[in-house]
Structure formats: structure tokens, C-alpha cells
């Protein structure tokens, strides 16, 4: 059970980080790398928010186990 909690926590944190980066790139706040296809593309804001939210759910789930 302890390994499962750790895995859920790490995957959740990575998903939250990826989602925040995607939101930053989609909104143009985080334009790195400059040749990224995600920069200033509004659909990536939504996709990033959903990914970050899913990561948050995993983190909360890892704390309840």
C-alpha cells in the first residue's frame, strides 16, 4: 500500500506540473521552447487545466489511502 501511495503521489505531482506548463504555453506566458507548437494555442489551456486537475485528484487520493 505504501508503494501505491508513493506512485500515485509522484504521478499526480508530475501531471500537475505538466498541466501547468501546458497552460502556460497555451496562454503564451511560458514560451519555451520558442518553436513549440503549443505556444498561444488556447486548446492547450483547457487540456492543461484538465491534466492538472487529474493530477490533483491523484495527489488527494494518495493521501487518503
| Structural domain tally | 1
What structural category arises from helix and sheet content?
Answer: mainly alpha
Number of alpha- plus pi-helical segments: 2
Q: Roughly what fraction of the amino acids lie in strands?
A: under 5%
Report the radius of gyration as a whole number of Å: 14 Å
Elements, N to C (H/E): HH
Q: How much helix, percentage-wise, in residues?
A: over 70%
How many beta-strand runs?
0
Largest sheet composition: none
Terminal CA distance? 8 Å
Mean pLDDT: 94
Shape: elongated
Report low-confidence residues grouped into runs of 5 or more: none
Please give a structural write-up.
With 65 residues, this protein is mainly alpha-helical. The chain has one domain (2-64). The protein is built from two helices and no strands. The chain has helices spanning 2-27, 43-64. Helix 1 runs antiparallel to helix 2.
Structural topology:
Blueprint: H1 2-27, H2 43-64
Helix pairs in contact: 1-2
Brief rundown of the structure:
This protein is mainly alpha-helical and 65 residues long.
What are the defining features of this structure?
mainly alpha, 65 residues, 2 helices, 74% helix
Amino acid at each position: 500500500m505504501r508503494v501505491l501511495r508513493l506512485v500515485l503521489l509522484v504521478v499526480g505531482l508530475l501531471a500537475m506540473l505538466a498541466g501547468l506548463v501546458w497552460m502556460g504555453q497555451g496562454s503564451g506566458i511560458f514560451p519555451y521552447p520558442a518553436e513549440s507548437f503549443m505556444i498561444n494555442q488556447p486548446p492547450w489551456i483547457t487540456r492543461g487545466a484538465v491534466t492538472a486537475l487529474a493530477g490533483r485528484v491523484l495527489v488527494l487520493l494518495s493521501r487518503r489511502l
